[in-house]
Amino acid sequence: MANEEFALIAQLQKDLGHVGKGVRLGIGDDAAWLDTEGRTLVSSMDTLVAGRHFFADVHPADLGWKALAVNLSDLAAMGAIPRWCLLSLALPPLAEGYGQWVQDFAAGWLALAERADVALVGGDTVATDGPLTLSITALGVVEQGVMRRDAASVGDLIWVTGTLGDAAAALDRAFVSRGLPGWALNCSETCAQALENRRLRPQPRLDFARAAVAAGVTCALDCSDGFLADLGHILQASGLRARVDLEHLPLSSALRECIDSDLQRLLRWPLTGGDDYELIFCAPPSLTGTLMALATNCALPITAVGEVLPADPHAAEDVDLYWQGQSLSLPMNRGHQHVF
Q1: Which of 39, 89, 117, 131 is most exposed, with minimal Cβ within 10 Å?
Q2: What average pLDDT does range 199-224 have in this prediction?
Q3: Strands (E), the chain
Q4: Which of 277, 222, 339, 336 is nearest to 66 (CA)?
Q5: Residue 4: Cβ-neighbour burial (10 angstroms; 0-12, 13-18, 19+)
Q6: Are 279 and 222 in contact (CB under 8 A)?
């Protein structure tokens, strides 16, 4: 394996090891040498395992994009500027060798890395008898403060970028197509493909997040485990409650075709489904005009879906959920489980 591993590293260096901003020494030595230029460093790390976080038959280009995207989304949630990544690959044997797989993976990774201006500066590779596993560490810098999940305040509006539920609906479709338990989609092939694209190629909201921090937003996180579960993280960390109006959750036209006023599907996909990688953020009403202007500049829709409420020690739940003015019970399953 040693020679094959060296060849793999050399190919990754060739395909992805381009020098980026602040890189004094990148791939090729025992460690990277990076210059933060006097800014504060923000870091995040995710591990993705075949059969748990993605299907083993995913195209490597889609995997390359998504593996980077989910980490950049964490940086976006903090309002950070992405700079560098470290990648660890545990690869099972491939009958045809690693060459084409790495080339395709690199193409997907690079398509997003160039857009986000982030450089791969190091990592590790290892052969394994287990499932394909990727670990990515993302490093970014901030020019001022960061957004945090414990910074919500009473009276803040609860906002969501983009739309919710597309990836969860597409995942259900993928389950059903593989003979696994899931909810069938009743929509056109065009809409189904649009949902699948959102599942495989999420868009980290980096530009809007940086602008939001500069505008004074202090509370956010990325929506990866499902809106209700991730909002719960904010409320728990901030010691507060919230009201959410379900009819305000933003839906794509493709998902609207699948839901067709079915409340149970609305609860399943936009409310509790995962893998959206949109931002949930809280901000005082006084920032509404500024935020709407920023969203227009970024060509990104944002939607206010609820309000942060004072803590209530007697309340059984931390979210009051309403549908067209009527109170609803919260779903038993409040978030997405990354198990295939």
Answers
A1: 117
A2: 96
A3: 23-25, 33-34, 40-49, 81-91, 119-127, 133-142, 157-161, 219-223, 241-245, 278-283, 302-309, 319-323, 326-328
A4: 277
A5: middle
A6: yes
Binding-site residues for ATP, please? Answer: 123-124, 149, 224
Is the pLDDT reported for residue 334 higher than 70? no
| Whether the model pTM is above 0.85 | yes
The predicted pLDDT at position 19 comes to 55
Q: Residue 180: give the domain boundaries.
A: 157-328
Same domain? For 218 and 278 the reply is yes
Cα–Cα distance for residue pair 286/115, rounded to 1 Å: 32
Residue 151 falls within a domain, yes or no? no
Kindly state whether residue 152 falls inside one of the protein's structural domains. Answer: no
Chain centre to alpha carbon of residue 214: 21
Known binding-site residue numbers for Mg(2+) = 30, 44, 46, 74, 124, 222, 225
Give the pLDDT of residue 9.
58
For the annotated binding site for substrate, the residues are: 53, 275
Question: Does position 76 have pLDDT exceeding 70, yes or no?
Answer: yes
Count of domains forming the chain:
2
Binding-site residue numbers are: 30, 44, 46, 53, 74, 123-124, 149, 222, 224-225, 275
- Does any domain span residue 235? yes
Measured CA to CA in angstroms, residue 106 lies from 15, 21, 102, 120 at distances of: 6, 19, 6, 11
Q: Please count the residues of the chain.
A: 340
Quickly state the pLDDT bin for 5 (edges 50, 70, 90): low
Q: Give the integer Cα–Cα distance in Å for 242 and 226.
A: 16
Single-letter residue type at 306:
G
* pLDDT above 90 as % of the chain: 67
Residue 170 tokens read as 């597409």
C-alpha 51/C-alpha 40 separation (Å) is 36
